[in-house]
Specification:
The chain is α/β, with parallel strands linked by helices and about 500 residues long. The protein has 15 helices and 13 strands. It is elongated.
Amino acid sequence: MKSTGSGILPTIVLDRNAGRSLQRQIYDSFRSGIIERRLRPGQRIPSTRALATELSISRFPVLNAYAQLVAEGYLEGRVGAGTVISRLLANPAPSDDRPEAGATGSGRRPMARRASAIAAPRNAPWFHGIGAFGLGQVAFDQFPLPVWSRIVARRCRRMDAKATHYGEITGSKVLREAVATYLRTSRSLRCEPEQVVIVSGSQQALELTVRVLLDPGSRVWMEEPGYELARQVFRLAGCNLVPVPVDAEGLNVDAGIRLGRKARAAFVTPSHQFPLGVVMSAARRFRLLQWAQANGAWIIEDDYDSEYRYESMPIASLQGLDDHARVVYIGTFSKVLFPALRLGYIVLPVDLIEPFRAVRRVLDIGPPTFHQEVLAEFIAEGHFARHIRRMRGIYRERKDMLVDSIRSELGSEVETPGAEAGLHLTITLPARCREIEIAERAAQQQLWLWPLSRYYTGRGAQPGFVLGFGSAGLKEIRPAVRKLRNLIS
C-alpha cells in the first residue's frame, strides 16, 4: 500500500452529517483548492487508496470524486507519476502584447457599442409605486380574475401532447383571427389574420419592427417629447433619431420634413400622443402618409391605449387611412387587460409578412401558446368587450376626479393638455419648478410622479409630471393632488 507521501494531502474536512455526500465533499475541496490556487498545476496529489485510508472512508467516494475532477479537466493522470493537477490550468506565458484599454478588470470592460448607446435603468423612486400616480398601471382589482381563472383551468384540462410543441411563428391562428376582427371593427384597420403577428407586448413588437425595417445609421423621426423606451430601442439598433416637435395637433410633420426629409421611418402615437395626450389632426395624418409614400419611408403607429377615449368614440387608426401600405401598426393588451400578460400584436403590410416571419424565427421561434388560447376564448365569449365597456366608465370617473382636483387644488398655474383619453394625464408647470426634486420628495409620501422632462431628448424640456390614474381609486385621487400641491408650493 502506498502512503500519502505519493502526494501532499490537501485539507479535506468531511462531515458525515452534512447534506452533501462524501464524494461531493471531496470533489468540492479539491475544486476550491484548485480555483483558489492553493493547489497548483502539475502538483501531485495522493492516490485514491492513500486518501481513502487517511480519511478512514471507503475508496469508492474518492474514486468517484477523482473521476469527476478528471472529466471536468481539473485533474490528469500521468504514467509513472500518479494523479496531478491539470497542467492545462497553468497561467499562459507572459506576453509582450499589452492589453487593450478596458480589457482588464480596471476601467470599463469592452462591450458592443449598441449596448453603451442606451442608458442603464435608473433606480428612480417613481418606478416602483402602485397607486397615485403610477404610470403604465391599470385597475388591477377590477379585472375579472374568476372568469379568467375558469378559462385557464378549462384549457389545462384540455391540454394534450400537441399543446407542448412549438406554436405558430406569428402566433395562434384563433387569436390572430380574433385580433383582426376586433381591429377591423373598433379601430377601422384594414387587416386580415395573416397580417397579424402576436408578440410579447408592444416593446417586442417595436424591437422586431426595427430589426426588419431599419439599419444602423437609419434616420427616424421621434416625437418630442416621446416614449422613452421606444427611443431606447432605436438607439440600441444604431438608428439616428430626429426629434420632431409635438403641438396641439400632434406631430408637426412639416417640421419633420425640414429636419429630416429623407428619414427612413417615423414613430408616432397619433390617437393619444405619449406623453402629452393630444390627437394628431386629420390634416397632419394625411400629410404624414403623403411624406411616407413620396420618400419610401415607413410609419410605425403605436396605438397603446386608444380603447379608453371618454369624450367621443375612439379615434380611427392611421393605418386605416393608408392606401399605400406604409404603416406598421402596433397594439398591446397590457392596458386593456393586465401588464403581466405580456401579449401584444403587429399588423403588417402584406409584403412584410415573410420578412417578419424569418426574423421572428431567429429571435424566439414564436410566442408561448397557452395564454394566447386563453385570451382567444376570453374574447370569443364576450368577456373582453364587456371588460372594456366597464373599464371605460371606471376610468372616466377617475379621470374626471383627477381633472377636477387639479383645477381646484392647483388652479390656473398648471395646464392639462390631452385630458380626453387614456390612463394618464400630463400637467405642465412653470419653468422655475424643480420637477426631479419634487418627484423624489413625493416618493417619500407614497406619491409616484413621473417627470415630464425625461421624455425629451434635447434642450427646452417643459417641466411637468405625467400622472397615471389607472390604479388610483377615487378616494385617493383628491388627497394625492393635495399632496402634489403642497410639494409644488
